[in-house]
Amino acid sequence: MTAAAHDTILRDLARLRRVRDRIDRDYAQPLDVEALARGVHMSAGHLSRQFRLAYGESVYSYLMTRRIERAMALLRRGDLSVTEACFEVGCSSLGTFSTRFTELVGVAPSVYRRDHARAAEGMPSCIAKQVTRPIRNQEAPEKASA
């Protein structure tokens, strides 16, 4: 590999980290691949391909996972409805939010809110985040049939 190619790879990785950091920080804002790509001076296609190579999932999937993680925390608090949590984390479609939530968490958001309210109460936030993190890159495991 030439020095120039190596420098290009390192520059792209730094840009990808900036995109990931922006998603982590601004998940509740309207974000799309084109805007994220413009922010790091990449084409949307190049960003999409490189992000998937680096992180194993699409930009959209990463964004939705961040939103679902935050929604899980809001629903555990118990003071917001599912609809309020959906819009609070930046989703504009309750149907898409509910579908993605169910895929990642394994239960519908209303069931999660009912059954997991205060589940992480008293737990240090760093532990609660690990224990309650949604599954990535795969659907939630099937529940055993009775």
* Tally of separate helices: 8
Distance between the termini: 56 Å
- Radius of gyration (CA) equals 17 Å
- Helical amount: 55-70%
Averaged pLDDT: 87
Structural class call reads mainly alpha
Characterize the largest beta sheet: strand count, sense, and whether it forms a barrel: none
Q: Please report which band the strand proportion falls in: under 5%, 5-15%, 15-25%, 25-35%, 35-45% or over 45%.
A: under 5%
What is the molecular shape?
elongated
Order of helices and strands: HHHHHHHH
Q: Uncertain spans, ≥5 residues at pLDDT below 50?
A: none
Q: In total, how many beta strands?
A: 0
Q: Can you walk me through this structure?
A:
By secondary structure, this protein is an all-alpha fold. The chain is built from 8 helices and no strands. α2 (33-39) packs across α3, α4 (59-77) crosses α5 and α4 (59-77) packs parallel to α7. The chain is elongated. It starts with a helix and ends in a 14-residue tail after the last helix. 23% of the residues are buried. The model has no long low-confidence stretch (mean pLDDT 87).
